[in-house]
Amino acid sequence: MDPDNPNKRRRLSSAELLDIPEDGHPAPLDESGTIFAVEELLADDSNTTADDSTTTVTQPEETSAQNDARSCIESVVRDLLATIEAMEENEETSGSEAVTASSAERSTAMTMFCETPANATEGSEEPMDTLPPPPPPPMDIPPPPPPPEDAPQPLRAEALPPPPMADLLPETLKIEPFHPLQKFYQPFEGTLPTVATHKIRVQEDINKDIQFLRNQSVWAALTLGTTNPTKKGEKRGQLETISEKPSDPGVIFIITRHGGRTCLATPLHVEVCVPGRPDLFYVTFSNHSRDRKNGDNIDVNDYHEGDALYVTKLVRRPQQSFEVVPTTFDNVTDPNIHKFWGIDEFFLIERTNKVAATIRLPGQAHVVGKVECIASGIGQSVFGPKHLFPEKAGGNNKPRTKCLARIFVPRLQPGRVLATIAGPNAKSTVTEMAHSIINETHVYPWVLSAVQLSPAEQRSFDSLPNVFTTFRPGDNHGYNALLSGTLLAFSGVLAAGNRDKDLRVYLTTIQHVHTVRGKPVVTFAIQGVTGPPSLQLWPRGARIRVDAPEHLVEMELESAANEAEFVVITARPTTSKEEILNFVSDLKNRKLMVYQKFEKHDYQFRTFPRQDAYQTIPRTAPIKLLLEAILGGPRIPDQPIPDRNFDFTLDGVRPSDEQRQYLSALLHTEIPVIQANSPFGVGKTLMIVMALVKLADRDRCSEAIHAATTTTNTATVAIAETLIRVAGSYNLRALRVISATNHGTVDDKQKTEIDFPTLWPRVFRKHAEQADERMERCDEIDALSTSVLAHLQNNDQLHGMEFRSSKIRKFLTQRQSPALSLWDAFLQLYRPHIILGTSATLTEAFSHPHPLSTLSTFVATIQVDEASQFAMHALISLGPHCPKARYALIGDINQLEPYADVQLLEEMKTIAVGNLLKKATGRVQAVNLTRVFRCPPEITNICSDLFYRQGLRAQRNPILDHPYHTILRFRDRFAIQVVHTQGLHTRSGTSLYHADEARMASQMVTAIRNQEPDADIGVLAFYKAQAGYISKMPQFNNVFIGTIDASQGKEFEVTFILVSRSNAFRTPQPAEAPQVSRRQKRRMRPANDATDFIEDTRRINVALSRTKRLCVLLVHEESARTSDIWSRLLDRVPRAATHNGWRINI
């Protein structure tokens, strides 16, 4: 209540309750009217007894006079309430006056009952305006006995007596001395967070706050709110907020729905609703709510979705009967059933605002009156009022143009479990009870205001993507524009990854567990409130979490399909830890929680360069020359490459003349950037390793470091394993940078002996053994050795080691903390010549304060493998850390470029994702590799003709033995065998699958496995749904299954290409087929599936070129023949190598 209110700590008189002015006519009650002050409602007025199992509240016996008075008044009140109910039923015919009278009479009845003095007798009556304030009811009730020492001590909530007429209330509205789930929680202990929202959040108590409000609402149910639902508020603009938890008990609610005049708020913590209070899932926030810091006459439009309100009092909304109170959790998330409760008093918790460049996305807004935006440094969608982004031609506010916005970023999301929950078993119990409301609603950042960019800022953004067409090369303003624009675009990329996610929590039971490709795969079904969740939100490859009491397991979704009212999902763990895999294997019939992970992207923004990152780099630095060349600046001039016929072999292989030219460019010139156009199978991995070995061997005595980076762990492992295999005699120190967390999640096949988590224990153990030997000649253990020993001991890496030195043995008994960090000690013992890692890993490792950042300025060369997949933002982020490094871009512009969300603006895709290799083509010096060693000559020649303008040369001799052809009974020995499929595909969300095609592929894979158990087989699908469908089939166990896009960079002995589509690959244009209607065109293709997906020559090229022996192409010929590129491909396959699927007999 308002601190200036003199009635704050006393009961209100009847006249005050009715707000009777001096003229004697009662004014309408407003929503702030209450019967008791909260402090008095919570006075000790009951006898409380507690033991280990139950807690009871006992009322003292009344005197006979009190009993008679109470009985009489109860009878009068019940008769009066019955009359009022009848009047309300005739409300349509009675008019507004009847409604007002009903409300006043009901309030009067409540006042008569609750305000009657304890010593009243039948017939006693005084005028309402002269009735003295009666003593509080608790005064004549003896104090409760002290509770046992081990009993919880809530803040007075246990003393609240049942309200008058409690039997009229719904059965869920009842006073409880303690929260029913209190045994699962413990008091908060520890250091409070510094952020206001989190500081207040962790202090919210299960009894003192949550149960307090639950009990207060029971009393509030008998108090009517205002009869003026259209109260006009007063806009204030700047609002006062709180940064500390008030002394008043209260609960945090989050505004989740904003309707202009009223809003709905949802509890931050599910314990407010669970168990038994579904009615509190939504409460109304309106102009009648009273802001304890900003006054009574508020305007809800000063508040926004995501605002955190510390609510101290709820109120019954006007004209709402008990029949509208939800009493079950059925349809609890439907806002239309929540009309009973309103927020009476609250504090606004401190907001977090951010000023950022913002751009509106095109298309329809998700909600009327809102528009969707992306903003710099925010990795999720941002929404704002439509009037700030009017759709008018020209000016700053037209769609797709940028502005500078002040954005409110919510720090709390509703539907969470209290932070003080005591352990995983307790959490499992509570989340199971609350699964229907956990994470049910997500609130997004909100644009508070927007201003036009300055002319200079507008010029910077308009210069994108070809920045150095507008700005002179070397101009710092150009690099500022580049970083600003890239950060905005990169934020859009990250936001797109979070947009299409189902953030609800689902309670499910694991139906099956089976082992596929060495890992357990679980099957479960999920169901939404109104039916099955959208398949579009559960795509193959999505990261999900399976939450059990023992472990929180990260999984990757394999498949999802609709079955009746459910979506049936299969998923496999992302980790390779034996403990987790064994745990997952035993999950059958276990009930647990499943949800998708919302990515916060703190790491990506933390490692993105600062605005001045490029200003200190010399004008002639290779990274600057490269960025300027590909973004509108001058081309990097060519330099002569000497033809050195050096004697050099690795793994018994001599470099070809083309590879030698690449090696010479790195070894014998100072060319800042070299591009190696490397189609499939030309030996680029071995060429990269050759360059690393020769460069590191040459610079062995200097501080120079040579690095290679990729976009995937698979490509990094290929380089690392080749390096380990062929460079042993050179005695070079190589390091693959990978965090311990990621190392624990990757498959064992993606681990190598030079991985940091594997390498450091070996290096430390060797040093510890040497230190033990030296101690015979030394008096003290040096600081480095103590740190090494401490790290080995703290990480349980001393097993099997025995030390002769008594000083070392004594040191280990003391268990001291290491003086040096793990990385610092490692780098003193093992300064690498060669560093490998993904672009994201190296960017983080070279960023301050990581210890490797001290070595980044010594990086002399960086070879970028699979450069066609290397995103622009990755290059821009890595560049400032290695200013002296020369670059080599190795890749194939005729293969797939980085993935970009289809909803991204084209200008966003270009600057954030782009195609680095394609942009560099013609702008930097290049060498061409054309000799293909991987594929059979037939496949090399077909790909050369279709995709490389006859630029490839097959170097592999014709294959004489054809074991896989024989097993599959293919009489013709051509390297491509086409199997024509029958039947129709089935839609699955925006994707599709083909059951008959999958069945035929499984038969052929099984035939090969039966005779060649160790055959290296890859099953490649054009569509995610087909990959997911076949992943569930046991015949494909221990076989690579993935989309064409996921297979780039891999190779197999045998590949099966599943095209799956059974309708036209190419939609006829109106000029070609004017009789085809627009509706028919839509039916001819899957939803959201552009024809260029199936006809993308880069995707077809990748699919065909993965094989080393045999490629089996399963395709619907009639549909494929509608496409020119597919017709040309099929025409290149001999008729004898084509088969009708139904005739396949294996």
From TrEMBL:
Matching InterPro entries: Coronavir_polyprotein_1ab (IPR050534), DNA2/NAM7-like_C (IPR041679), DNA2/NAM7_AAA_11 (IPR041677), P-loop_NTPase (IPR027417), SF1_C_Upf1 (IPR047187)
Region feature Disordered, mapped onto this chain: 1-31, 44-71, 119-159
Domain DNA2/NAM7 helicase-like C-terminal: 923-1116
Family annotation (CDD domains): SF1_C_Upf1 (cd18808)
Comp. bias (Pro residues): 130-151
SUPFAM superfamilies per UniProt: P-loop containing nucleoside triphosphate hydrolases
Pfam families reported in the protein's UniProt record: AAA_11 (PF13086), AAA_12 (PF13087)
Extent of Polar residues compositional bias: 59-69
A molecular function (GO) term: ATP binding
Residue stretches making up the DNA2/NAM7 helicase helicase domain: 657-898
Biased composition (Low complexity): 44-58
Keyword list, A-Z: ATP-binding, Helicase, Hydrolase, Nucleotide-binding
Family: Belongs to the DNA2/NAM7 helicase family.
UniProt-recorded name of the protein: Uncharacterized protein
Source organism: Caenorhabditis brenneri
